[in-house]
Amino acid sequence: MKRGATGRFETVTYGDESVRAFVPLPLPPTERLDLTGSLQIKLESAHIAIGRLDSVSTLLPGTGLFLYTYIRKEAVLSSQIEGTQSSLSDLLLFELDQAPGAPLDDVVEVSNYVAAMQHGLTRMRGGFPLSNRLIREIHEKLLARGRGNEKQPGEFRRSQNWIGGTRPGNAKFVPPPADLMPGCMGDLERFLHETNDGLPTLVRAALAHVQFETIHPFLDGNGRVGRLLITFLLCHAGILREPLLYLSLYFKEHRDEYYGLLDMVRRDGDWEAWLVFFLDGVIKTANGAVETAQRLSTLFAEDRAKIQQRGRKANSALRVHEGLQRRPVTTLHEVAKTTGLTFPTAGVGMRVLTDLGITNEVTGKRRNRVFAYTTYLDVLNEGTVTP
Predict the structure, then answer these.
(1) Does residue 318 share a domain with residue 182?
(2) What is the pLDDT of residues 64-82, one digit of tens each?
């Protein structure tokens, strides 16, 4: 439904050019959203998909096993949208103090994303509200090290930014001027805290994401924070008990449509077209996460059955296998520490897994060797490998 522009333009001067910067109207939209008909059906389907996802802990021995690697997969995907080349294996090697195959700056950027995500979740679980202060804290973690750390980590911008082009004058989109941006973020914070406007949480998350990306309150890292905001909103509202829904892969696969719909909302006020796209992403992503959990549960059970046929060596191998479910890229020292096995016994167990083709050694070294649970990684790597 086209309602007209969802904001106004303010003329600002940048260098010797006059530029029109877009200032969005506060949420919710002044004209009521049409959540009836096919959109209502899609919203109901999205809630069902999220309900299945929220029960994913029943599909695995422990949700923590899935969360550890799934959060890292999201960090890789969200950072790839911004141009990094890091893979999930690169990140896991980096966390073991091993040399990754991708450029170090790329891997540090992904590692920062994991830290930012975990910081936000920890704060909210401790009762801290989803607020501008928390958004700034998350941003500070995101840009704490490596690339972008000179772009005012944890601070809202005090200068004009732009999207696309080499300057505001030839940019594809120019966000609000720096002096108006804090007011826009204040309006967004009030919307995040509103509970009496009748909007479903999924709709609220969809609207808030567009608004955040339109305001673009930081000099760098806006896309990554904006994608995290979706998951944080769902967790904060209790729709998800664990942070298992991430739309980065969906946005990556439909990049042109994603950016086109953001522009359409700003230009035409067609929130419903964006909501259809967003809810399709929720349904596809939630169902994909459940399928992944089911595949991993089956994989673990099948591999456990193979190990149990190895007689006396099976006990140590089963404990090593349990350790690899928590960390699919690891060293023998790490396995010994997490399982309580002695180093020699961990080595015996790992040899059983390697003989069965469950693990392989990835460094080629005689000492300080690193082992990967290859099939587990193959499942998680789907969609993260850049062409």
Answers:
(1) no
(2) 667 888 888 898 999 988 8
Listing DSSP states for 186-240 in one string gives HHHHHHHH--SS---HHHHHHHHHHHHHHH--SSS-HHHHHHHHHHHHHHHTTS-
Q: Give, in order, the Cα–Cα distances in Å from 24 to each of 5, 251, 314.
A: 9, 22, 62
Residue 94 domain-assigned?
A: yes
Give yes or no: residues 197 and 342 share one domain.
no
d(CA 136, CA 229): 12
Phi then psi dihedrals of residue 327, to 5 deg: -135, 100
Query: Taking a C-beta distance cutoff of 8 angstroms, is the pair 23, 176 a contact?
Result: yes
**296 domain residue, yes or no:** no
Q: Convert the pLDDT of each residue in 356-373 to its tens digit.
A: 999 999 888 777 899 999
Average pLDDT, the chain: 91
* Domain annotation covers residue 297: no
Is residue 332 within 8 A of residue 369, CB to CB? The reply is yes
Task: Transcribe 42-60 into DSSP letters.
Answer: HHHHHHHHHHHHHTGGGTS
Average pLDDT rounded to a whole number, residues 16-43: 95
- Its domain, for residue 182, covers 7-291
Integer Rg of the chain from CA: 23
Q: Find all residues with CB under 8 Å of 298, minimum gap 6, and list them.
A: none
Asked if the structure places residue 299 within a domain, the reply is no
